[in-house]
Amino acid sequence: MVAVLLVMLAFVASWWRTVPVQGDLADLHLVPLRFDPAAHGQWRVTGLWDVQSADIRFGGYSALLLGDNGRFLAFSDRGRRLSFGAPGLAATAGAQADQLPDRGVEQDLFDIESAARDPQTGTYWLGYEGVHAVHRYRADNRADGHVLLPDNWPQNSGAESLVRLADGQFVLLPEDAAQLCRFAGDPVAGADMACTPVTWPEAGYSATDAVQLADGRLLVLMRRLVLGMPPTFDSLLVAGPLPAPDEEWQPQVLLHLEDLLPRENYEGMALRPLANGSQELWLIADDNFSMFQRTLLARLVLAPADSSVDSSAESEADSESAHEKAREGRAIAR
Questions:
Q1: pLDDT (tens digit, 9 = 90+) per residue, 121-159?
Q2: Which of 122, 177, 305, 320 satisfies CB 3.0 to 4.6 Å to 88 for a cystine?
């Protein structure tokens, strides 16, 4: 299973990682990297950064939320929450804290794999692996209840993708199982779960995160491990309209990420609508605490299908980061 291989990879690679220190996450650095701004279909990259910190607590981020204040919440598989500003939207200084679950399950719920947010209230939900569960948190990050997933949840397959739909339903995707599970409402409030089968468009990929696009389609980030020295990853973005109950879901490939981005272990995803009708997609990579991997942050823009804007036209995101682009031309991607 991909999850098991990743754990083994992280364990072995950690022996060669640069020795970290117990420091201050305020020293967080977002180092701009070069990228190709040319459009690939409706997609193009408008920003790419290597997120760095020498703090021992930094790394392993598998889920990403973007708040109305322009700051990210990134959640790690070691039960930590990193807050930092999105480039062009807020000051990027970082702060990290333990993500404390309900009392009594502190030792069980720590491997965070997915996140969803209610933009109206700031309430957010986290999906966990190991002890498979969904946990709800208030906008002030206080624990507000949890639910364990049913006993028939696929083994060795975390709650990798958690989406709160615009209508208040929730979608949950296991990592290594071809099924889509839907809750009619808040799972922590007791909403029933019903699962339907999925036919993924390419074999060997596992879901790592998902968001709902403006047109209602579900967009899923997928990856597969590519063995080598060092190992690397292929990644896909696939999407499709949500299926009717008991209907098989058959999403289609929108983009092979390696066509636009460096290969990395992309696991977290957040979406922001832009004023011109485009949608801004942010991705974060899980470095597995390995010297062979990076915590990359990428910003892509999905143009409307009927957009007449060509690949050289500036989007709202580009105008926000004009100064960053000047530095990107001088930065060298590793």
A1: 999 999 999 889 999 999 999 999 999 998 778 776 778
A2: 320
**What torsion, rounded to 10 degrees, do the Cα atoms 62, 67, 71, 76 define?**
-20
Domain spans of the chain? 2-328
Q: Are 109 and 94 in contact (CB under 8 A)?
A: no
Fold of 2-328: Tachylectin-2; Chain A (2.115.10)
Average pLDDT over residues 107-133: 94
For residues 148 and 158, give the distance between their C-alpha atoms in angstroms, rounded to a whole number.
12
- Look at residues 40, 48, 77, 47 and name the one whose alpha carbon lies nearest to residue 62: 77
Whether the pLDDT of residue 48 is over 60: the answer is yes
Locate 64 and state its tokens.
């990403």
In the chain, DSSP finds a helix count (H) and a strand count (E) of 3, 21
Distance CA 212, CA 200 (A): 17
Nearest to 127 by CA among 18, 196, 209, 47: 209
Among left, alpha and beta (phi > 0; psi -120 to 50; other), residue 162 is beta
**Residue reference for tokens 């990644």:** 235
